From TrEMBL:
Protein origin, superkingdom: Bacteria
Domain Pyridoxamine 5'-phosphate oxidase Alr4036 family FMN-binding positions: 10-98
Keyword Phosphoprotein assigned: no
Recorded GO MF terms: FMN binding; pyridoxamine phosphate oxidase activity
Keywords: Flavoprotein, FMN, Oxidoreductase, Plasmid
GO biological process, one term: pyridoxine biosynthetic process
Listed name of the protein: Pyridoxamine 5'-phosphate oxidase family protein
Amino acid sequence: MDLTDIDAAAWAELETAAADPQSGFRYLNLCSVDAEARPQARMVVLRAADRSARRLEFHTDTRSPKWLELSANPHVTVLGFSAGSRLQLRLQGKVELHGPGSGAAEAAWDKLPARTRTTYAGGPPGDQRAFQTTDMPEPADVAEGKARFGLLNFRARTLDWFQLRQQDNRRALFCYDEAGALASCRWGNP
Ligand SMILES: Cc1cc2nc3c(=O)[nH]c(=O)nc-3n(C[C@H](O)[C@H](O)[C@H](O)COP(=O)(O)O)c2cc1C
């Protein structure tokens, strides 16, 4: 496989992961920097991927600390590992935030299954929980979720591709331009 094949295969795997809960890259680590310049990381579900724009989509609650962090500093690293292919993908770039009321957030909300909408029905993420319950949220609370739902559009500018092998690990580095076209690529020492 040459470098352009590796790049194409990595993005094809991300596109597959967005549609397949069993895929290794379905859950990715989204890393940001907070107001005190401390690194912050958390798992997120990959909701969509577009290889031509080098775009990944994530969903989150706009009341969460990450939303505030990303509003102030949109630079992120997205880290994934697939045990099946023993592949690490480390992408760097920026996120665009689409908050409640935006066309992008409304369109994504409309496509969410009812069970996923309940994720946004509770109190603010991280706040102390007043009580434990296994009850389903009230329909009114589920409807409220739309006003908290945010979409993160990540555009990758670099991909650091690393394959762990029994010997002879492989690493390749890719840069993309603003439109997502491959601007440069090279092999790297692992
Ligand atoms: C497998 C997995 C998937 C997750 N997916 C999401 C997600 O898609 N969006 C999200 O906001 N939080 C998701 N979470 C929860 C986050 O990892 C995190 O705990 C939460 O969003 C609070 O992050 P913050 O305090 O940095 O804002 C997921 C957690 C796990 C374990």
